[in-house]
Amino acid sequence: MAGRKLGAKRAKAAGRSESGQAVVLSVVWMIVLLGMAGLVIDVGSWYRSQRDLQADADAAALAGAQDLPDNTSTASGQAKSYALKNGFTLPTSGITITGTVVPDDSITVKVDKNAPTFFAKVFGVATVPVRAEATAKSSLLGSAKYVAPIAVNIQHPMLSGMNAGVNCPCFDVPTTLPLGKTGAPGAFALIDLDGNQGGTGASDLANWIQNGFQDYLDLGDYFSNTGAKWDSSAIADSLNARLGTVLMFPVYDTLTGTGVTALYHVIAWVGFRIDSFDGSGSSGSITGAFTSITWEGLPATQPNSEPNLGVRVVTLIH
Asked: What's the CA gap between 284 and 150, in Å, rounded?
């Protein structure tokens, strides 16, 4: 009898011991799990902070590249200004301007900040450093989007001549684009951007003028649109709707062939601000000014012989 009681006491004591061990193990595992959860939260927070900082660096670099390669001081100022708008200070030491294809065509932005911790504070770590770097490049426009179908001769005096003793292209100088015959029978300074052979109607041309051609266009040969369509109400309406805005025009050096087989050889793109328009049958004119501008498109491949007419595209390269 006494033996049975002693055994029961031992079994009960053993049960309490195992129960106590289980509690200790549970507490340990809870601490481990909470630590792992805290680490996951902290790492996720640091990752989000780095992603946000990278987006800010990208934006600052793209903003600065808008003024390259012509004005490096303005480019640095733009990058700093854009960074400040996004809530961080970009020091001069964090900006580097270099040349990739031509001198001063690229800007690199390096930024860093301290991201706060949550559970890591238990171990005395209040913040961790996060860093981001971005490089944007300004290039000549190779393939252009949103082009208007009005052809401009490279020999226009504001593109290849001189103005006030300065070699052109000359920007923001009032000038006129003639819209009459351009040297081939049936050619009136209009281009069929969609590849049709002289068959594009006035309504489509008007849409391209007002909204731009929706696909990317490469440099090369384009068919002339035949017929004088400058007195079309649709084209007149679209040009009047764009008064005071900049259109992207193809620039050609040669016009070969006749009629529907006439080809404009497009060698570049140029921005033109329209101030007024006069259309009358087989003649007419657009008054405004050529302008330098950053446009949507794809960078020109190198090397090439494309003249620099002030149209550039900005892209992130790192």
From this structure: 12
The per-residue pLDDT for range 259-289, each reduced to its tens digit, is 888 999 999 999 999 999 988 766 789 999 9
315: exposed, middle or buried (Cβ count in 10 Å: 0-12, 13-18, 19+) = middle
Could you tell me which of 148, 145, 165 has the C-alpha nearest to residue 216? 145
Per-residue model confidence as pLDDT tens digits over 8-26: 455 454 455 555 555 555 5
Q: Which of 167, 136, 164, 169 is nearest to 269 (CA)?
A: 169
**11 three-state secondary structure:** helix
Global pTM value: 0.81
DSSP 8-state symbol, 92: G
Q: Length of the chain, please?
A: 318
Per domain, the residue ranges of the chain are 2-138, 146-294
pLDDT for residue 170: 97
Which amino acid is residue 153, in one-letter code?
N
Check if the beta carbon of residue 118 is closer than 8 Å to that of residue 135. Answer: no
Distance from C-alpha of 173 to C-alpha of 265, rounded to nearest angstrom: 26
With CA atoms as reference, report the closest residue to 115 among 149, 78, 88, 151.
88
